[in-house]
Design goal:
globular; protein-cysteine S-palmitoyltransferase activity; 13 helices; Palmitoyltransferase; 2 domains; mainly alpha; golgi apparatus; disordered C terminus
Length: 372
Amino acid sequence: MATDPSPLCCCEFRNLHGHRTHLLAFCCECDELDNAVDQCLQGNKVSKQKLHDISMVISDRIRIPWFNGAQKLEFDYVVPILFLGISLYFASNSLVFTVLALVYVPVFILIYYIYVLNQRKRTWFFVSWTLTSLVGNFILYIAYVAPFNSYLNSSVLSLGFGLVLSLYLRVIFSRRLLNMYALSSKPPSLNNANHNDTDYKDLNCCFCTEGPFIRAKHCRICGYCVPRSDHHCVWTNCCIGQHNHHSFLAAIVIFLGTGLWGVYLSIFTICSSKDNSIFHVDCSNVYFNSRSSFVFVACWYTIIFILGMCGLLFQQLVFVSLNLTGDEFRRSSKKKSFCEVMRTHSYNKGFVRNWIHFLFPQDISSFEEEVV
C-alpha cells in the first residue's frame, strides 16, 4: 500500500510500522493489550516478548502536538521530571514523609542503576534526572531563598550553578572531541581534499583502526574507543576519558562547593539559629508552610548527592595521583590485591609528575599500546 506523501499536521505521526495515525487514536487497535489483560485475569502467564511489544506501542503513542507532526515523549526524559516533582510534593508534607522519600528515592536509583549496567545499554534517564535536580534546586533557591540573602551570595551561587551546568553539558556532548583526537593520531588517506565528518566516522574505534589511542578501551555500550579510558558514566551517558576527564572532575569539585554553600544559605534562611552555628539550628517549624518545607527537603536531597559525589571525588583524586585509570584498576584488581596494584602500576611517575601529565597531556596517540 502506498504511503500518504502529504505533510503531517501537528497531531499526526507515523507509528512503529510507518503507518500514518492520529493522537486521538491512542486507545484504538489495542487487541494485544486486551488479550494480555484477559490472560492476566484468567491467571495465565503473559510472555516477556508480548509485554515488550505492548510497552513499545504505548511509548510510541505517548506524544505531544508539534510542528510537522507530533513528537514522541521518551520515558527516559519524562519519568525523572514526574518522579522528582511528585516525590518533592510528597516529602514536603511532614518529617515522616521526608524520611520515606529520602529512602525510596536512592533505592529506586540504585535498582535502576544496576539494571542499566546489567543490560549494558545507553539511556538518558540519569542525565534527565541530574538536569532536573540541578535546575529544580536552583529554581527553588531563586524563588524562596535568594530574596532573603544578599546579591553577592546569590551571584556566587548562580555563577557556580552556571559553571556546573556548562561543564556537565560539555562532558555529555564531548563525543566530537574524539574525532579530533583520531585525526591527530591517524589522519585518513583520502584523495579528496575536502573531507567532512562522515569520512572520519570509523577512526575513533580501536576495533576498526588498530587502536589509535594511548591506553585505550573500546566501550561496548557507547560503541567507540576512548583514549585513556576511565569508566562509562551512566550519569553523563558517555565514557569518561582523556577527552572529557578534566571537565568531569571540575564539574564535581564546583558542584560540591556550590551545593554546600547553597545548603548553608538555605538552612539559615528557613531555620532559626541563636548563635549563627549550623550545628545549633531549630528547623521544627519548616513544615508550617510549603516554601520552607520544599527548601528543607531539597537541602537534604542535595546533601545525599553531595555525599555520593565526595566518594567519587576521592576515588578520582587517588587514581589521578597514581596515574591510574578506573578501567586499568578494575582489570588489575581481578588478579592482584589493591596494594599490589598500587605498587606495581607501570604508569606511576610520582605524585607531581602524575598530576602534570593529567593536566597537561603531552601525547594522546600511540600505536604500540595494548588495546583491551
